[in-house]
Design a protein that fits this description.
Its main location: membrane. GO terms for molecular function: hexosyltransferase activity. One of its GO terms (cellular component) is plasma membrane. It is a single chain. Helices cover 58% and strands 1% of the residues. By secondary structure, the chain is mainly alpha-helical. The protein has one domain. It has a two-stranded antiparallel ribbon with strand order 1-2. Strand 1 and strand 2 form a beta hairpin. Helix 18 packs antiparallel against helix 19. The relative contact order is 0.11.
């Protein structure tokens, strides 16, 4: 069935935002200069931070660098509001490129996931399914080298571990198969195939920078298409200049960035139907988290046919992506995913998650309460969401899930950063900041309930942002409308 509906059934385009207040030339010039200076400082801080060491040997220094970077980022976002649209667009593009290049200046500093990516790409290039064997398996001995399997007697240093068989390995969880879905595996193979021999970590970091910059371009395009040329640069900057993007998408090369790009394209460039569903399905087949954007993709849709086309296309894309790997590995395509979920505290009764709910409820009730809250939120987004702004409902559900689950990995929130850049609701960035504080600050404050404090502060900020947005005054990154205090 065609994805093209009659004009009266198309998802409505968002109405143009009210024109921004005129800015005199002197103010515009000063804003442009101040923004450029702040971006130069942000770039220098990112460069210095990634060169300062890793999160095990120097966590305090890294946390300080992150704090300064976030402060400069906030100041630059504030300053660029008064810059002319053309100058602001140039600053967004130049700033996005600059901070990404700065993040390329060192090895990954806070995560070893990238080494698994490199290994999975190498295994596939040898014609072997990445789900078939763990890195430490004897069947893969011929693929090992001194980079990922250094020949060291001590096997000490950041990211190194020794297996039960005595192998020194740079890959985390070397005794279990990969957990990554098939589109992610396709990316690892593509980067490996295009990389020069012995290029090690740099191609994946460069790939992360390309994906991050591509997402910035997509956000600018979406902003202009919806009749928002003045606010589009400031919103795109919420992604392009965000320290989380520099550190997690580029320096650590997390695959989540590909999922963010596909989700932005799904929600921002396609109407509800097969095309949106296929793009969102591809994002889900990168990392499972974009499934939370599906209710947003269906915001306000009453047509069963349109809902069915969107969902069916998403499911078909995931199935199609898995097909070649299922042929090679059968049910082994799940890899270590079930074990990972158990290890990370997502099994019933585990107390490593749901920090905010456990402040109010018994541990045993926290998980079920989270499921009910998320299900009701998803239903609200689908039935009451704005079809012209599907990213708004996606942000509400994805952000709420982060607050409820309270993960300790900041790269899980890259999707939230992308959705914030689509919608302009900057207060949700505090959920990203909470994950960063928890990840880097945990070893500095042993025994302190940092998880509850970090995500509790983020929840308060989100609530305050919703109340401020309900005030009648206009807000520069998003349109405020009088009404009740609500997040979406």
């Amino acid at each position: 069935m065609s994805d093209t509906a009659a004009p009266h059934r198309q998802s409505p385009q968002p109405p143009p935002s009210p024109p921004a207040a005129p800015v005199n030339r002197a103010t515009a010039r000063i804003s442009t200069i101040v923004t450029a200076v702040l971006l130069a400082a942000l770039t220098a801080v990112v460069l210095d931070t990634v060169r300062a060491g890793d999160n095990q040997s120097n966590p305090g220094r890294l946390l300080t660098g992150y704090a300064v970077a976030w402060t400069l980022f906030a100041a630059a976002i504030w300053a660029v509001r008064k810059a002319p649209a053309r100058a602001a667009t140039a600053l967004v593009l130049a700033g996005s490129a600059a901070v990404a290049l700065a993040a390329l200046a060192a090895l990954p500093r806070t995560s070893t996931d990238m080494y698994r990516y490199a290994w999975d790409g190498r295994v596939q290039a040898a014609g072997i399914s990445p789900y078939a064997h763990p890195p430490a398996a004897p069947e893969l001995t011929e693929l090992r080298d001194d980079w990922l399997f250094p020949a060291r007697s001590s096997c000490t240093g950041w990211g190194l571990t020794r297996t039960d068989r005595g192998l020194c390995v740079r890959i985390n969880r070397p005794a279990v198969p990969t957990i990554y879905p098939p589109v992610a595996e396709g990316w690892y193979f593509t980067v490996h195939a295009l990389s020069p021999p012995d290029s090690r970590h740099k191609p994946l970091q460069v790939g992360g920078a390309v994906l991050a910059f591509g997402t910035t371009l997509a956000l600018l395009t979406v902003g202009r298409r919806r009749g928002d040329p003045r606010r589009a640069p400031a919103r795109a900057a919420l992604w392009g200049w965000c320290p989380a993007v520099a550190f997690e998408a580029v320096n650590n090369a997390h695959i989540d960035t590909l999922g963010v790009l596909l989700t932005v394209l799904a929600l921002g460039t396609a109407t509800a139907g097969a095309r949106r569903g296929a793009l969102l399905g591809a994002a889900i087949a990168v990392k499972l988290l974009p499934v939370l954007a599906l209710p947003g993709a269906l915001s306000g849709q009453r047509s069963p046919a349109r809902v069915l086309r969107t969902v069916s296309a998403a499911v078909a894309m995931v199935a199609f992506a898995y097909l070649p790997y299922v042929a090679a590995s059968g049910t082994g395509v799940l890899g270590y995913l079930p074990g990972y979920l158990q290890e990370e505290g997502y099994e019933p009764g585990d107390v490593h998650r749901f920090a905010l709910l456990r402040l109010l409820l018994p541990d045993a009730a926290a998980e079920m309460t989270a499921i009910v809250v998320l299900a009701l939120t998803a239903l609200h987004v689908w039935r009451r969401g704005d079809p012209a702004r599907p990213w708004r409902g996606a942000l509400l559900l994805t952000g709420t899930s982060l607050l409820l689950v309270s993960p300790s990995y900041p790269w899980y929130s890259l999707l939230v950063v992308g959705l914030v850049a689509l919608d302009g609701r900057w207060e949700w960035l505090t959920a990203t900041l909470a994950g960063t504080v928890l990840y880097l600050g945990g070893r500095l404050l042993p025994g302190f309930p940092l998880q509850a404090w970090a995500y509790g502060t983020a929840a308060v900020c989100v609530a305050l942002g919703a109340c401020l947005r309900a005030a009648p005054a206009r807000q520069p990154l998003d349109d405020r409308r009088p009404g009740r205090c609500r997040p979406a």
